[in-house]
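Example record for the data management plan.
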Amino acid sequence: MCSRKACGAILAAALAVGCARKPPEPKVQRLAILPIENLTADELLGRVARLAAAAIQAQTTGLTDTYSYASGSAAESELGRPTRCLAGYLTKSGDRLKITLQLRDASSQKTLQVIEEVAGEKETTLALVDRLAKRVHPQARRFGTGNEEAARHYGQALESVDSGEIVRLLRRAVELDGSFGEARHLLVQSLAHTGDRAGALQAALEALGNEKLDRLSRARIAALRTALNGSVAERVEATKQLAELLPADAEVSAQLATYYMSRREYKQARGNFRNALEADPGWADVWNQTGYVEARWGDFDAAIEALKQYAVTAPGSANPQDSLGEVYFMAGRFAESEQAFLDSYQKQPGFLGAVTMRKAAEARRMRGDKSGADELFRKYTDAAASHPLLEVQKAQWEYSSGERARAKKRLEELAERAGIAPDLAAVALTQRSVWLLSEGDRAKARAMAEAALKRAVSPGVKRIVEIASFVAGAETSASEWSLRAERELPGPIRNLALAYALLLNHHFREAALQAKQIYEATDPNREDHIRELLALAYAGSGQWDEAAPLLRHFPIPQSADEPTFDCLVFPRGLELRARLAERAGDKQRASELMTLHRALSAKK
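Corresponding structural encoding:
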């Protein structure tokens, strides 16, 4: 046993590491519950201390103004961005248990409250812990069991590191009290972690079949079950229920927002990301995701504000400025986009292989300043001198800037250079093939693709070469193109290759149907290339009402996973936007966009 002064020093040391940050002021308190130390000579009381900490965490789960989470150490607690920290120690007062807790502000380390409770005569451990939890938060719920023996087995499971022993102890706890939600939840988790998926599912179903199980435990176990063996719809419904019961849990709200984002249900995604940020305003990644959701929803002012807050919460990262540059670009605010990309580059020149400098070049080019854009692109190439495809990138830049003859010459020399790597030669030949095809020279395009097929070695290069070879095939009907794709192409590349082929052969309505399927299955964060392709197909078939929403904002620079087919949509997308502006009566905007399109489409 130690003196009050000594115990206070122990507690202060435990809290010092975890309580040193200053997050934005939250609407929800994030409470890190650290281990309760056993300061008695009785080692068995360590289980009681462990159980007490776990029970308090469980009892403070589901509150509207507090999110609590267990943490193994003060340093570990920082990962959860706490606003408050709770630590404590177990001693004895005479022959009775005594637990002392100290609640501290995570930013200032100021002690907000000291809580002490001594077990009454013949009082159970669970009753003592229940009183402590109520003092931590007056709305704390009761622990999942009143059965001391079941709780003892649960506490032992928390102490154990042996997976088999953990499962055995939890099964015994559940046998003693079938409505013990925390034990049932941990049992399902433990079985899943050991790889016993069937056992985990069975344990989940048994738990859900218990009518006395509390609502929160039921929802948490249902979420585990759907994660193990449930449809997307079931997983989403389970997450919705959890979000309702855990309003202060930022992670659950963010999970739900991510689902809505994947379905382009931006209104719902915005609401859930906002809920997550109200619960945890220091979560930098959610500020970043919120910025993109707001941008895709069309509220660029909100997007920019979210990304500025992202910069505050991630001050050491170059990514906030990069994200800001992308959102400005989407909005057509190219001067601001360029500056944000340059700021990102200045902060961390090597970030993402110096690609922020290339993005700055693209933003400058969209302002009509070709010479300035070329200079920024040269700075990118200097910084990325070791990139294996740098010469290909130079050619792609030249081609998309209207310097087509120079671009083709560069790739011709690259493919013919003695000793060149086969894959690099294949990439050069493939790009030349696609350019020729987009210009209408199918015979030469097919010859280039066949030459590329003979060179390609790695799976990634073979994939794009096979697509180029397919689309360079002889012209035919839309239905025959579909049959060819089924016969000739593997599943992973079939749909995209067919969309390219239909578009290049002017089967626009069929291309739109094909591209729409791909678009709907594509993550919105990676959609820009296929969205532009779909807009092009709609416009080609005269479906301008369908094309218009897809062209509301500009595609993020360098967003395509594979840029070989970018020539199909850029700078053509500028012409489509010019025509839409003209249809809307904005002649000045239409003229600006068409002038830029002509400059970048010049066949020099």
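Summary line stored alongside the record: The longest helix spans residues 422-438.
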